[in-house]
Amino acid sequence: MFKSIKAIMIVSLALLTLLCLFPSKALAAEASFEPRLTSPSRDNAYYNRSLNAFSKYGYGMPNCTAYVYGRIYEITGEAPLIRRGNAGSWWSINKRNGYYEYGSEPKIGAIACWSNHVAVVEVIDGNTITISQSHWGGNYFDTDTVKIGANRYGQKFYGFIYACDSFFEAQEEPVYSYKLEVPPFQLPEEADDSLFPSANLIAECAPQLLLNSRMLTSAVK
To answer: What is the pLDDT of residues 18-38, one digit of tens each?
Structure first.
């Protein structure tokens, strides 16, 4: 019986140690992510000529590429690597240049690519995603909830470009803090100068720091 209890205690301690050393971080980025479900203001620098590469060259919103460029910039704080081409070419441009990882599984902040449209994944709910988008010659901004991987408006679905992965991974890096506890130094009751040689003491944790023996004795008293 005692051996069983001891084994349980050892396993529990091991699990606790693992949790301390490797804290859960899978949902850290998603928990802090704020989906854009309303239109950006016209003076938002990410979406206008101030920072938006497409807007600077006359292809500003309403335009799906200009919007996605601005949204990725807004999420990561860094200018996206895809900064040219129409919506139908983004998938091939990314693959050809190796800018970002890509795949068929949705991720928050990923670029959803169709044969002539791009949008940004804002929410994932079961087998559907909510995307934010803009439309060339149409709506300045709107959102839509679509089935993952579905073709839409007669356009073929290509996949997702994970343009925000590096940003989210950086946000999820665990931060460890360590506390060093040093037991208090105690002198014998009858302490005098004979306990300390005339040479200065060198602190083990900081060799460059020299402590005078008389100063140390006075501080301890």
So the answer is: 434 334 344 455 668 999 999
Give the pTM: 0.68
Calculate the average pLDDT of the chain: 79
What does the chain come to in residues? 221
Three-state SS at 133: strand
Residue with tokens 């807004």: 74
Q: Which residues contact 42 (CB under 8 A, 6 or more apart)?
A: 48
Residue 215, φ and ψ in degrees, nearest 5: -65, -40
Scan for tokens 């004979």, then name that residue: 194
User: Residue 58: which region, alpha, beta or left (left: phi > 0; alpha: psi -120 to 50)?
Assistant: left
DSSP state of 195: G
Bond from prior residue into 62 cis (ω within 30 degrees of 0): yes
